[in-house]
Write a structure and sequence with these properties.
By secondary structure, this protein is an all-alpha fold. It has 4 helices and no strands. Helix 2 (about 15-60) runs parallel beside helix 4 and helix 3 packs antiparallel against helix 4 (about 95-125).
Length: about 130
Amino acid sequence: MRQRQINSANAAPIPELTTMATDLNRETERELNGHIFSVSAQLVGICLTVLGLFRVVIRLRNVDSIADNLLALDAIAFLGACVFAYASLHSRGRTRRRALERVADASFGIALVLMTSVCALVAWQLV
């Protein structure tokens, strides 16, 4: 009995289970990229809306701020995340898809940090 347990522990993985795990990982990656794609597209629109509103406030109060320029950069960063996530969703090669996913993740993270910084700057300047 003990000999069987040792042999089964050293046995090669079952191909069906390996394929199922790979398919599950691939589906999870595509789902994450789909979320990054849709949320990034929405946040581009939010950045542009806030940028327009912020420009109105700047003109009314005669305040000069770098926040509007940072919001424009933020919209570009979210657009980059959106484009890279889209390209990853349509990529056929595994290596290329993973590289595009990493760039999309990094762009999205940088854009979120920039958006938080802009919000803090706007709150500090308007108060």
